[in-house]
Amino acid sequence: MWVFLVRTLLQRFVLLIFISIVSFMVIHLAPGQPTEVDPMNPRMKAEDVARIRKSFHLDEPLHKQYFHWVGDMFSGELKSFKDGQPVLPRIWERFLNSLPLFVCTTLIVWTASFPVGIHAAVRRGSFYDRSTTVLAYALISIPGFFFSYLIMLWVVKTFEIPVLGMRTFGTEQEPLIFRGMDRIWHLVVPAVMSALTGVAILSRYVRSQMVDVIGQDYVRTARAKGLAEEKVIYDHALRNALLPFVTIFGFLLPGLIGGSVIFEQIFAWPGLGRLGYEAILNRDFPVILTLNFIAAVLTLIGILISDILYAFVDPRIRLE
Amino acid sequence: MTTTSAPQEPTRLPLVKAEAEALGPSESPLREAWRHFRRDRLAMAGLCVLAFLVLVAVFGKILTEWRVVFDPAQVRLPDKLRPPLAGASELIAKDQLPEFGLYLFGTDELGRSVFARMMQGSFVSLSIGIVAVAISLSIGILLGGLAGYYGERKLLGFISVDTLIMRFTDVVLCFPTFFLILTVVALLPPSIFNIMIVIGATSWMGTARFVRAEFLSLREQDFVVAAHALGLPERRIIFRHMVPNALAPVFVSSSIDVAHAILTESALSFLGFGVRPPFATWGNILADGRLYIFDAPWLFLIPGFAILVVVLAFNLVGEGLREALNPRLRRR
Predict the structure, then answer these.
(1) A132, A110, A109, A106: which is closest to A121 by C-alpha?
(2) Closest listed residue to residue B150, CA positions, set B142, A29, B158
(3) pLDDT at A37
(4) Does B270 reach chain A within 8 Å, measured CB to CB?
């Protein structure tokens, strides 16, 4: 177990170095300089550009820039190209904004898709099964922002609850309970909308997994010895169907950054995805690179967690 | 024997079917798959939609660019934001009148006919999806095949081909895909080809891992060993014997990948990094239409539902194919 941990950690560390190099190359070798964001500005003289380039080490060779970036990131002194503010505190602040949305979305996805999928698998071929199938495919196929706009219009018209941003303007002086309610109202629609695709995909997966397991011999044995149907489904079948979901669970973490760009943009939610989007628009390389790096770290941590969980859940697997 | 025992229509008697299965393979795998596919009503509906889409795309290309009947670039400012099926007003010059003097899907903020733009966009959207998937398939099959077949060869004495390729795949897998696409598209000069290339170049990892696994298991199978023993050249073994056997599942999932690419394109358009004018795609018609959602909802609804239907069709066909080609998933 410990040998496994040390070895994978070492491997992941090497992988991380390569990831940082590749992402650095992709961004720096692509055409377009960060100093070209505003080329029409008449007050930008050539010497100003040179001064800016110098202060951000942009005039040095690429490998030196790479070490500057890594060094600055780990010492916490990395500055944004755009306004010279430190990058890490800003990412942390946006992360705290993204977190509630991410947690709510994840909770909705994982609590909704299992009942739906299991029910469909148990009544395979029924009207319920077929209608959830069609509905799930429709949800997977609809462009996220199109659907969100339609739902937003409908929600605002019928329930008159706020949908944009994280809080209502001018409520800072209100009592805590009012502000809390306001935050929750703002959270509901974005969380549900970004969860829907996940529910559709995961419930399909739960269904196929359950269908597979229900056809197995040991389920027939459990039925044959006269166990209650509920016990057969939830104790014997579901337990074995759960195994692959441990892997999927590990892949959740990076969704914190990459999966949220569209929905944070739609709902004007000041989170990590939007920070990345703004950084891309501004060619703010330090922010883009750091976000990419954090996403890669999260992916690797997620894979590691799912590997370890797998060993706990499935006694047939040994970590060596 | 082969043709007579294959029932012309799907048999409804389980007994007869069981008997036929007990007799062993009496029809070619493709025919059998087609028989299963045809019974899947959703997948057949999807196939019909796709056939219709291909027709629309081809005619769209012909009628909007080669022999211009519906001109997607014709600006008619007096007739902006007209609802669907509205007639053209009298202020429009004779040679600028839309076909039949009627705006089938209404007009946008510049008075361009939405119908003509959708016709043009269908070809562009479809080709983005197909070309992107073709790129991702070629990269995936090439890398996966190399890693699977030549995996044990050493490069520079210490690193095997397999390690090199698969670790590279892992590196790319660790990037958040959509964020990566966004970054690269934003940094590259905007063009329709760049979008195809970027979507393709960031989605090959699954194919590569799959093809590698298939190749690893195929390499040990008797018919490949026999081909080796016969002294066939490697080229022939790989392309005539192994590739066709590894590819069926890959092509099945490519249908779903096309759906994904079309959705990605529309998401990019929404964020402002999509295909630039003068090309119309369904994605950018939809993304521009959201600005007029109150004044001209058809600008938003028509492309939105068009994308929904087409992507749904691709998904259903892909799922139907997967069930038809994989005996383990078939409904018993």
Answers:
(1) A132
(2) B142
(3) 57
(4) yes
- B174 and A281: CB-CB below 8 Å? no
Task: Map residue A94 onto helix, strand or coil.
Answer: helix
Model confidence at B136: pLDDT above 90: yes
Q: Say if B258 is an interface residue toward chain A (CB within 8 Å).
A: no
DSSP H or E segment with residue B103: strand B102-103
Tell me which residue in A254, A280, A300 faces B186 most closely, judged by beta carbons: A280
Give the integer Cα–Cα distance in Å for B241 and B257: 26
**pLDDT for the residue numbered B1:** 37
The pLDDT value recorded for residue B140 is: 92
Alpha-carbon gap, residue B120 to B61, rounded angstroms: 6
Q: How far apart are CA A44 and CA A34, in angstroms?
A: 13
Query: Given pLDDT bands bounded at 50, 70 and 90, which one contains residue B52?
Result: very high
Identify the CA nearest to B331 among candidates B51, B49, B47, B43.
Answer: B43
Give ipTM to 2 decimals. 0.83
Per the listing, tokens 């938003």 go with B300
Average pLDDT over residues B255-269: 90
Q: Give the dihedral of Cα atoms B127, B128, B133, B134; nearest 10 deg.
A: 50
B263/A143 CB distance under 8 A: yes
Q: Give me the pLDDT at residue A203, please.
A: 92
Tell me: the pLDDT tens digits for A242-258? Answer: 888 887 777 777 777 76
CA–CA min distance B328, chain A (Å): 9
Show Cβ contacts of residue B117 under 8 Å, excluding neighbours closer than 6 positions.
B72, B108, B280, B285
CA distance B277 to B38: 41
Calpha distance B192→B72 (Å, rounded): 18
Cross-strand pairs, B151: none
Inform me whether the C-beta atom of residue B282 falls under 8 Å from chain A C-beta atoms: no
Give Cβ neighbours of residue A132 (< 8 Å, ≥ 6 apart): A116, A119, A120, A203, A207
User: What's the distance, CA B69 to chain centroid?
Assistant: 28
Which residues in chain A are closer than 8 Å to B180, comparing Cβ atoms?
A: 26, 258, 292
Using CB atoms, pick whichever of B177, B189, B304 lies closest to residue A31: B189
Residues of chain B contacting A146 with CB distance shorter than 8 Å:
266, 286, 300, 304, 307-308
CA distances from residue A76 to A69, A88, A96, A266, B12 in whole angstroms, order as listed = 10, 6, 18, 31, 70
Which residues on chain A are in Cβ contact (under 8 Å) with B177? 258
Q: What is the pTM of this model?
A: 0.84
Measured between CB atoms, which of A19, A31, A137 is closest to B316? Answer: A137
